[in-house]
Amino acid sequence: xxxxxxxxxxxxxxxxxxxxxxxxxxxxxxxxxxxxxxxxxxxxxxxxxxxxxxxxxxxxxxxxxxxxxxxxxxxxxxxxxxxxxxxxxxxxxxxxxxxxxxxxxxxxxxxxxxxxxxxxxxxxxxxxxxxxxxxxxxxxxxxxxxxxxxxxxxxxxxxxxxxxxxxxxxxxxxxxxxxxxxxxxxxxxxxxxxxxxxxxxxxxxxxxxxxxxxxxxxxxxxxxxxxxxxxxxxxxxxxxxxxxxxxxxxxxxxxxxxxxxxxxxxxxxxxxxxxxxxxxxxxxxxxxxxxxxxxxxxxxxxxxxxxxxxxxxxxxxxxxxxxxxxxxxxxxxxxxxxxxxxxxxxxxxxxxxxxxxxxxxxxxxxxxxxxxxxxxxxxxxxxxxxxxxxxxxxxxxxxxxxxxxxxxxxxxxxxxxxxxxxxxxxxxxxxxxxxxxxxxxxxxxxxxxxx
Length: 451
Prior knowledge:
5-stranded parallel beta sheet; alpha/beta; 20 strands; globular
């Protein structure tokens, strides 16, 4: 954007993943707002290590950058298809869920065309200038100023504590690196996948397709009691609506924390379709042979409590069975960790950390506009995307709520309703009824008769 570095932006975004890209796309249609979104990488990339063949999105195509807020936007997925001359092929495919590679290509298409997106510009620090009441941001070696900042730095791969001392082991790595490091598994004859979410299921399925038959033993472990499918009933999906977000936000913090842990099947499990493909592959590969003909183990209810590695390359996993408490030792040649992602506090916030009103666990306190609570001295708006699972619930990482959240932030920054948002989005009423319930009344010592 052709704007002087000394002229403040109305909104400066840090990181360009799908969520900040959604906000950038919505802001592009508001000419009175000056906005800039900065990203350290040279181009848009979204989970490149997990773009395996056949992997599909878990949300419908309408969960694009803009459509659930503004379906007329030029940045919609359907407009992308028009530019790609793929509208008729998409129409005849009759698939509501996109290939993951196509979603990534769509985002890349939008990111390289949006004028308010700047790549190769890592944000290193954010300061607050009290006298000017502005954020001063260092991005790509350039000093920028802004009235509001939105953090969209995403989450980081999580390694369980059992693997803390093995983080640099060449054959223990997070599945986020799967495609980048898959060839390092050549020659390994025992591979263990840990984690029962969608990434774990897709990696295990890819290994089944490419390695079974060559003598490799494949093992899939999870500490959950079942390889359960993602909740995908129509009413169950209403947990991913603004209605549920509002309900969840009003709950006490302790209740919210308990619910997030209990609701893993709403947002952490694998799709029923992927689980079915795994079963189908195993069934067809053993036709005419015993069920244990393939060296495959699928073991739920098993936690890895410790891991060690010897110089010869053998990795030992000490496991505990959840129900029986029985411990066992597994020796394997590689461990692929499909153990999810965690939000972390970025170091670039260090200069203003003392001005942020953290909760008792050191997390952001986030209001319904996705604005972070700060001390009175910091008057600018600091917003977050996908860092508020503990305050906004299971819809936080869901792409289906991305455009809605971006519109909420945009409306707050603009100080007006740029995008009208629906008052009701779910048939389900999550909160208890507000109507008072009275006990039966008595008249002259006798119970009142029902009328």
